[in-house]
Write a structure and sequence with these properties.
The protein is α/β, with parallel strands linked by helices. It is built from 6 helices and 5 strands, in the order αβαβαααβββα. It has one domain: Maf protein (Alpha-Beta Complex).
Length: about 160
């Protein structure tokens, strides 16, 4: 279970955000709300967590504000689209931090056959400094759950160092 491994670190992030009077929102694709779930499992998260969107389809990424030209040019599985997702959700919710995640978790996508398999792109947008923190991770575990946890672990580690 994620909480046993990551709960204290997520609690630290929530407490830092509360102390700094900062907020965070997420737009996740392949992780299916895993990051939002980890944050909202922490008592007091309602003070800092504004919104979580799970945008599996390109259509809803675009409806939320992701630039369709970037999807066409770089593929939906790219750091450019992750950056669009993180900035879009930050602006949409007026949050200090936005997290955008897109990628493939051991699955070929017939609707988006391009882009690298088993790579997840993560963008953390710091709106106050107009800065992107960009990461990617190879996910080769045998289950989606294990791969989501690998992404969660990386996001938590990076958030702790950014905030």
């Amino acid at each position: 279970m994620w909480y046993n491994s990551y709960g204290d670190n997520v609690k630290d992030i929530v407490n830092k955000l509360i102390k700094l009077n900062k907020s965070i929102s997420t737009m996740e694709s392949c992780t299916g709300g895993c990051i939002a779930n980890a944050i909202t499992n922490i008592e007091g998260s309602s003070e800092v967590f504004k919104f979580g969107a799970v945008t599996y389809s390109n259509q809803y990424k675009i409806k939320m504000g992701v630039n369709s030209d970037n999807i066409d040019k770089y593929t939906v599985y790219s750091i450019e689209v992750a950056n669009d997702m993180s900035k879009t959700i930050s602006n949409y919710t007026d949050s200090n931090y936005g997290i955008g995640i897109t990628g493939k978790l051991n699955r070929f996508d017939v609707n988006n056959p391009y882009g690298k398999d088993n790579i997840v792109y993560i963008s953390i947008y710091d709106r106050d400094n107009d800065k992107y923190y960009e990461y990617s991770i190879e996910v080769l575990e045998d289950s989606r759950d294990k791969n989501k946890n690998k992404v969660l672990e990386l996001v938590i580690d990076k958030l702790n160092s950014i905030i």
